[in-house]
């Protein structure tokens, strides 16, 4: 079986993920609908396809997708030009996009009916995790498909979890991101309160990192500038992980919660806060820019327009 990997969606996450596969000696061909992203791929000298047929020329052993949302995954796999009708039975399909469980199961089941192995494998760890190959993969699908995919996922990530059957990867990811959305607002509230109390934010940040108020947004991805190198808050809140993506994930969480009658009051609040922020034109800012909402007139940092 040829080792050619077709990679669709080389945006903020897909680009460094594809790069790590190439660095590990894999033959990778990429495709994206965005000219901007293709130009970035050209800078890194990726092998670039002009369209899906071009991408799937030759014998492709694996397709990896890293797309924004369920509608994009559905179009790419099951649409008019859907790859599900274009790949061979021994091609493994890996959708790393964070999408709704229903679409994830629908795509995976269609693949299964055609005898094609597929997993949903959304990731946690952000662009730094993608660049450093330290992503956590949350996999849904059969044990066979998981075992087949694992060596490739290990090139791009550090922790590879088999969460359960098809759709469970996305289910686990949706739960994780609901907690992340809530904790990013919590971290922002704490740091902005410190600012209004005239306590040195750097000191409060250092204290929280070593105290019970620590969280991923505090230690890895602080929502205010000057606390950690290389995070979006230090780069005028350019994403990173966009507020639009977080809003999408919180909506998915609330839909799931309603369906199974789970009580998620903080998740609902976080969903409303991000939804409003996005409707005010901030979808393309990093999700840590939610600190602006929390900070009000005390928030005086640089943000990209
Ligand atoms: P992104 O918007 O930067 O990249 C997605 C890419 O998919 C874009 O370049 C877009 O042009 C491309 N695309 C869309 N439709 C396409 C199609 N039909 N054919 C080919 N290409 C297409 O998004 P991202 O930040 O890389 O996120 C991708 C996924 O990963 C999302 O589901 C997101 O929720 C998830 N995720 C992102 C992060 C993060 O920190 N950015 C972290 C964890 C998970």
Question: How are the secondary structure elements laid out?
Answer:
Blueprint: E1 4-8, H1 14-23, E2 28-31, H2 35-43, E3 47-48, H3 52-55, E4 60-65, H4 70-78, E5 92-95, H5 101-113, E6 118-120, E7 123-124, H6 126-132, E8 135-140, H7 143-156, E9 157-164, H8 168-196, H9 201-209, H10 216-219, H11 243-260, H12 265-282, H13 291-295
Parallel strand pairs: 1-2, 1-4, 2-3, 4-5, 5-6, 8-9
Antiparallel strand pairs: 7-8
Helix pairs in contact: 1-6, 4-5, 8-11, 8-12, 11-12
The site of nicotinamide-adenine-dinucleotide has 26 residues, from helix 4, strand 7 and helix 6.
Explain this structure.
It is globular, with a radius of gyration of 20 Å. 49% of the residues lie in helices and 13% in strands. It has 2 domains: 4-165, 3-Layer(aba) Sandwich (Rossmann fold); 171-298, N-(1-d-carboxylethyl)-l-norvaline Dehydrogenase, domain 2 (Orthogonal Bundle), CATH 1.10.1040. Strand 1 (4-8), helix 1 and strand 2 (28-31) form a beta-alpha-beta unit. It is of the alpha/beta class and 305 residues long. It has helices at 14-23, 35-43, 52-55, 70-78, 101-113, 126-132, 143-156, 168-196, 201-209, 216-219, 243-260, 265-282, 291-295; strands at residues 4-8, 28-31, 47-48, 60-65, 92-95, 118-120, 123-124, 135-140, 157-164. The chain has a 6-stranded parallel β-sheet, with helices on both faces. It has a 3-stranded mixed β-sheet with strand order 7-8-9. The chain binds nicotinamide-adenine-dinucleotide. Residues 8-9, 11-14, 31-34, 37, 66-68, 72, 75-76, 97-98, 123-124, 126-127, 240-241, 245 line the site of nicotinamide-adenine-dinucleotide.
């Amino acid at each position: 079986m040829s080792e050619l990997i077709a990679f669709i969606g080389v945006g903020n996450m897909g680009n460094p993920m594809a790069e790590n596969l190439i660095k590990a000696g894999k033959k990778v061909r990429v495709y994206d609908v965005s000219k901007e992203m293709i130009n970035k791929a050209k800078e890194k000298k990726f092998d670039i396809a002009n369209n899906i047929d071009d991408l799937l020329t030759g014998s492709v052993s694996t397709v990896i997708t890293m797309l924004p949302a369920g509608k994009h995954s559905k179009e790419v796999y099951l649409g008019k030009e859907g790859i599900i009708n274009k790949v061979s039975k021994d091609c493994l399909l890996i959708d790393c996009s964070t999408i709704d469980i229903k679409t994830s199961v629908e795509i995976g089941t269609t693949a299964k009916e055609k005898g094609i192995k597929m997993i949903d494998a959304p990731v946690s760890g952000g662009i730094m995790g993608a660049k450093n190959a330290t992503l956590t993969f949350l996999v849904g699908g059969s044990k066979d498909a998981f075992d087949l995919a694992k060596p490739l996922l290990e090139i791009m990530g550090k922790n590879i979890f088999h969460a359960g059957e098809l759709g469970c990867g996305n289910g686990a990811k949706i739960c994780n991101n609901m907690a992340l959305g809530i904790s990013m607002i919590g971290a922002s509230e704490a740091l902005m309160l410190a600012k209004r109390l005239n306590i040195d934010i750097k000191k409060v940040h250092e204290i929280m990192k070593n105290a019970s108020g620590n969280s991923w947004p505090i230690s890895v991805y602080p929502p205010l500038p000057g606390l950690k190198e290389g995070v979006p808050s230090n780069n005028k809140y350019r994403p990173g992980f966009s507020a639009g993506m977080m809003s999408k994930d919180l909506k998915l969480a609330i839909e799931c919660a309603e369906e199974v009658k789970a009580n998620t009051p903080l998740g609902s609040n976080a969903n409303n806060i991000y939804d409003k922020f996005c409707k005010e034109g901030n979808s393309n800012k990093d999700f840590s820019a939610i600190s602006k909402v929390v900070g009000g007139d005390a928030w005086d940092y640089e943000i990209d327009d």
